[in-house]
Amino acid sequence: MNLWRKNILIVSAALVLLSLAMWFTLKLTLLSQLNDLENTDVRKNVDRAVAAIANENRSLQSIAADRAYWDDLCKYISDKNPDFIDANMTDSTFTYLKVNLMIFVNNEGQIVYAKGFDLRSSSPAPIPPSLFEELKTHPQLLRNDSSPNPQTGLLVLPETPVMMASYPILPGNQEGKVRGTLLVGRNLDAAFMMRLAHDTQLDLSLQELNRISALPDYQTAFTNINPAQPIAVHILDNNLIAGYTTLTDMFGNPALALRVTLPRDIFLQGQSTTFYAALFVGLIGLFFGALTLIFLEKLVLARLFKLSREVKTVSDEGFGSRVSTGGKDELGELAASINHMLVDLEHTHLQLLYSDKQLRRITDNMLDVVAQVDCSQRFLYLSPSYQRVLGYTVQELIGKRYPTLVHPKDFDLVEKSLLQVIESGLPGYCEFRCRSASGSYMWLESMINAIVDDNGQVTGAVLVGRDVTSRKEAEEQIRFISLHDPLTGLYNRTYFEQEMMSLEGSEAFPIGMMICDLDGLKFINDTLGHSTGDGLIITAAKIIQGCADQDSIISRIGGDEYAVIIPACDHAQMESIYAAIKERAVEHSKREPDMPLDISIGFALRLDSSMSMADLFREADNNMYREKLHSHQSGHSGLISGLMQALLERDLITSHHVERIDYLVITLGEALELSRSALLDLRLLGQFHDIGKVGVPDSILLKPGTLTEEERAEMQRHSEIGYRIARAASDLQPVADWILKHHEWWNGQGYPLGLHGKEIPLECRILAICDAYEAMTSDRPYRRALSHQHALQELQLCAGSQFDPGLVEIFIHLMTTEQTA
Predict the structure, then answer these.
(1) Half-sphere exposure (CA, 13 Å, Cβ side) for 24?
(2) 227-262: per-residue pLDDT in tens?
């Protein structure tokens, strides 16, 4: 007989004898009695838990009854005075009463007031929408007849079970007509169950009956529940036992399954008793064990101890050590096999060291970050690139959960992706923001692969991440540009139309829309340049942004047109925004008269779904154009006045200059016997011929030295700018052509058209002489004024080249006669 058979025979014989003695002892004394006692204890505790829930129901009834018979509540149902809510429906009220919702309903079934409250976070929370559907389905909860009956009990809602009390609202004497219904609810959520468990010192849980099919212990227990036996007992494991029963809702229908989980103290006590019984039996087996050990020591144990010591030496010294062999039985063969195994392990270990070195050389130099996590999502390994990319050392992160590095808004996405890979074993992918050691966030795209052991079980996951911050920022910039106006930063027409479509089916009324149009933008662009026009566009955008509500959606939908969508507003708010925009536009025009701002505004309100968003836009746009038509005529006159005022304030012209030109052109015009109307037009030309200088930079106009070619070309544009200004203003249209040509020379070398001789209008030739004389006899930034005689000599020298010689002769005669007189 070999060594293995000897050991099996001796040990098996001893164990069989010991097991048989223990089994019969326990079978005859404890098992059946302990089972009955344990079941009785469980049923008592289930009854105690049901009584605790009934007590909570009575507490809720008391709260509802106390509140429903307040005179102030009756009054509030009628007048809806907010002071009642401020005084009685505070967050502390819900916390003190331990209720999650209160609803006041009048006799017409309309909800006068409703508030939900989260007791865990001590903050308001939405009331489950399904509760309102339940009230429609069971109108008896809102009974308000002459003899109303309070109703209390459970309601099972899709969101959570609720303990509900429905009481009629009556005056304090509980007489008279019912004013409505008070609904008070307490969620049977985790917080409620924790409190109930604390009060009863029981481990409690509730489940909806329609969901217990997915819970094997509930399903097994509830097959044994019937009217004769309303409580079922089910053993969960060696340490826990549970009792189950059914709770009905306030309509008498089975609704919830209650489970009370208890430690198996009786069973464990029985085990303790069993232990002592087994100890007694063990003493009997000790004798047999002693005999067995003697034989094992001589035949097996001594050699095994020696082999164990040698194997431990191999473990301490490495795979190069060997164990001694001896004997021709199984122990000898085992020692030889161990030595062969050690040779193979030594070779394999060397290969693993080389492979690990190669792998670390790769991971230490890669740009991507690699991490291994277990099924709890805790770091088991991190590549050195984590320190280069994110700034963390390996020691800082090992053992921490991976999602703790993730941006709070991306936390759920990453955790869900990891769980999905771990549960399914299939690869995953996600993009998220990861916090670096400095506290900043960067975007990572991460591939997730499950780690599967030899048994096919998922033991964790590997995540390979790459920094894609630049790409995400570029994508975000593209998204921003696609929906925003690049000049003002407002939303563009594309976003505005998307928002119009999304609001089309909205039931949030009223919705306001305001259309704003920047008056005279084309005129500004044509006369002062597009850069000035862009400045006005930006200024108008800032004014509208500053006046609109915070929730407003402001878009630039055209070159000079803005649209503002204002949710949840009324006519008074629209008027207030309208007035604020107008006021700020006027303030801007006073502050910067050289760039006056005028905005035409129209607005409309969408009060219900009978008006489409397109109709709302059309009405607001029509109102804007109606205002624009009313202000159009005065707008150009105001703009011309503003431009002339800007010239005066920039010292480009003076009131003295205007008066002198007016005197000189009238003097020369009368000498030429011009008609009265011609003289009036001539005076208009003298007053506004330099209006185009508002479009020329001060650095050129006031430069004391000689102008460069580029500066001279810019300066000469002022006659064209003045022409466009005059064409845009009805009052100046008669002299627009003369403003364009007032710098033409008699010899054809003037600008901008190169006219010569009598091709030049008479009025332009008159103005050229008078303007030159007035300029020469006035101080300029680049020279002092000339004397009267010197100026006349200069006119004489330029006669026939720059000036009409015949008119120069008449002008000199007039000025000489004036000086003599």
Answers:
(1) 6
(2) 888 899 988 888 899 999 999 888 888 889 999 999
Which one-letter amino acid corresponds to residue 592?
E
Four-residue CA torsion sign, 197, 200, 202, 204:
negative
Residue 27: both structure tokens together: 């079978």
User: For tokens 């150009």, what's the residue?
Assistant: 636
Measure the CA–CA gap between 239 and 158, rounded to whole angstroms: 33
What's the DSSP call for residue 735?
G
In the numeric block, the tokens 């916090």 are attached to: 435
Q: Which two tokens stand for residue 815?
A: 């000025």
Positive/negative CA dihedral, 118, 121, 125, 129: negative
The pLDDT assigned to 685 comes to 87
pLDDT for 333-351, tens place per residue? 777 777 778 777 777 877 7
574: closest CA among 555, 542, 552, 589? 552
Query: What is the C-alpha to C-alpha distance for residues 726 and 655, in angstroms, rounded to an integer?
Result: 20
User: Before 510, cis peptide (omega within 30)?
Assistant: yes
Q: Which residue has the tokens 């035409």?
A: 600
Neighbouring residues of 498: CB distance < 8 A, sequence distance ≥ 6:
none
Residues written for the chain: 821
Angle at 503 between CA 499 and CA 505, to 5 degrees: 145
Q: Is 629 buried (19+), middle (13-18) or exposed (0-12) by CB count in 10 A?
A: exposed
Query: What is the token pair recorded at 30?
Result: 């404890």
pTM > 0.85: yes or no: no
Within 582-635, strands assigned E span 599-606
Query: For residue 420, what are its two tokens?
Result: 């999905």
Measured CA to CA, the distance from residue 152 to residue 155 in angstroms comes to 9
Q: Are 724 and 526 in contact (CB under 8 A)?
A: yes
Statement: residue 315 has pLDDT above 80 = no
DSSP string for 536-578: HHHHHHHHHHHHS-TT-EEEE-SSSEEEEEEES--HHHHHHHH
What pLDDT is stored for residue 145 in this prediction? 54
Tell me if the bond preceding 230 is cis, omega within 30° of 0: no
CB-CB contact of 665 with 689 (8 Å): no
- Give 296's contacts (C-beta < 8 A, 6+ positions apart): 7, 10, 11
| Mean pLDDT, residues 40-55 | 91
pLDDT at residue 30, as a whole number: 67
Q: Distance (Å, rounded) from C-alpha 279 to C-alpha 766?
A: 136
The most distant pair of C-alpha atoms in the chain lies apart, rounded to whole Å, by 160
Q: How far is 530 from 402, CA to CA, in rounded Å?
A: 54
Spatial neighbors of 693 by CB under 8 A, at least 6 apart, are 647, 652, 653, 701, 718, 721, 722
Nearest to 13 by CA among 329, 278, 291, 276: 291
Buried b vs exposed e over 250-288: b needs ≥16 C-beta within 10 Å? beeeebbbbbbbbebebbeebeeebeebbeebeeebeee
Q: Where are the alpha helices (DSSP H) in 742-820?
A: 762-776, 788-798, 805-820
**Residue 295, SS3 per DSSP:** helix
